[in-house]
Amino acid sequence: MKIISNLIYLAIPVLLLVIAPACNDEIEQPDITTGTGNFASYIAVGCSFTAGTTGDGLTYYAQQTSYPNLLAGQFALAGGGAFNQPYLPQGNGSGMFVLNGLSIDSCGNAKPSLSKTQPDPAWETSVSNLAPFNNLGIPNMKVADINNGFMYLLNAYLKRTVPAGTTYLQMVTQTVQDLQPTFFTNWLGVTDALAFAATGGGYNGNTQVSLFALTDTVTFAANYQQLLNALTATGANGLAFTIPDLTKFPYFNAVAYEAQGPDSCVQRLPLYITTTSGVRKALYNPNSFYNDLILLPAGTEIGRPDTLLINGTDSIAPYGLSQANPLVQDHVLDRNEVQQCILTIKAYNRAIKTAAQNLNVPVIDTDEYFNNLRAGTAFNGIEVNTDFISGGFFGLDGIHPHDRGYALLANFFIQKVDSIYSATIPQMNIDKFSGVVFP
Predict the structure, then answer these.
(1) Given its phi and psi angles, is residue 135 left (phi above 0), alpha (psi -120 to 50 degrees) or beta?
(2) Smallest Cα–Cα separation from 416: which of 425, 406, 407?
(3) Above 70 in pLDDT, residue 22?
(4) Does the pLDDT value for residue 130 go beyond 50?
């Protein structure tokens, strides 16, 4: 039999494989003022997005282009102080995806080839002696775990940053005491939903993993209030960021719910998925809010010729294309899990807004930015959208931005700072930042 290997990747337009050079014109800026804001001492709280993760990893270079570091650079133009980060050694850091090539098949489908660099052996070396840090972004950190002392052992990023046994909230509290910040940003909470969504509803294969579960909303609300209380304890102003609809990111949308058949470019074959209620075909209804989403890691596995014992006979069953060999649960976020994820994110955002309102902290709706990005827009002559690889914002993991994406986010946050605090902090020219690097 023919093995189907022509996976359909959505949103990698062939005509956009070459990223056009950006306009070199400088952005005209008014006189720099701080308005009612005070950016003399800035700290950033959050998870992987705050740390600067890209391509499913963190490196020294990626930390330099984290949005908090970029913000701090612009704040420095208005009298802002030093911004200390827990830098990894220069090199591969914790390892990250790189693009080895992008081939075009006979039907015009773009097929990326990715690999992950080897981690630097020294990336986990403790730097806690260099604290206090202004960037407190810790990949994989949840609001649920800010009081959990075991996270020191479970999270290598936290372990390298703090003294033994220190919780995330203790780190934040101590940093506030040491640095006396005048301004903060808080984007913790994304991982509370992302860990569930990115693992197909909290699975490793078909085994459920409690660490990947959604945080219950009561715990989220209580812990988030604690965190915001700590950040404002010395009178700092700041911003709280909501959690965007993660299911709209390319990690969840770059792979189609059907595969291209072997006989023609228009032939489509259904994908079979494993759900809690059994095996079925993946379904997609453009008029529905909730659809089955095939996750990005499945893209390189679909059509794999697995040999299975079927009715007492060894048979080849292409992975995901046979009811006998369906996608495992951590390769698909089914429509029920999509609904659960979206509704929980909405509940988290209500908790964020309530906690912020209690302390008069302005809230930035990050979905405002990502909704505009999905529609497609231009910044300084550069077309940007949420397409995988070619979109100009997301990196190779389909979740985190690349350098240019983080610069765009930083500019969006600067717009909000200027609006809320009547400041004129200058934005950055995004043509100074790279997108996905093509071989």
Answers:
(1) beta
(2) 425
(3) no
(4) yes
- Tallying the residues shown for the chain, one arrives at 439
- What would the pLDDT profile of 65-85 be if each residue is shown by its tens digit? 999 999 999 999 999 999 999
* Tens of pLDDT, residues 404-419: 999 999 999 999 999 9
- In this prediction, residue 245 carries a pLDDT of 98
Q: Phi, psi at residue 231, to the nearest 5°?
A: -70, -30
* Residues 325, 335: Cα–Cα separation, whole Å: 20
Tell me the CA distances in angstroms from 151 to 3, 130, 318, one per residue in order: 44, 20, 39
**For the residues of 14-74, what is the DSSP string, one character each?**
GGGSSPPPPP-PPPP------TT---SSEEEEESHHHHT-BTTB--HHHHHTSHHHHHHHH
List the domain boundaries for the chain.
14-253+335-432, 268-329
pLDDT at res. 21? 38
Is residue 272 within 8 A of residue 327, CB to CB? The reply is yes
- The CATH class given to the 14-253+335-432 domain equals alpha beta
Q: Is the pLDDT of residue 214 over 60?
A: yes
- The CA-CA-CA angle for residues 81, 356, 191, to 5°, reads 80
The DSSP 8-state label assigned to residue 261 in this structure reads -
CA gap 324, 316 in Å, rounded: 10
- Tell me which DSSP letter residue 183 carries: E
Q: 15 Cβ partners below 8 Å, 6+ apart?
A: none
Q: Which residues of 167-195 are buried (b: 16+ CB within 10 A; e: fewer)?
A: bbbbbbbbbbeebebbbbbbbbbbbbbbb
pLDDT at 5 over 70: no
**What is the distance between the alpha carbons of residues 252 and 244, in angstroms, rounded to a whole number?**
14
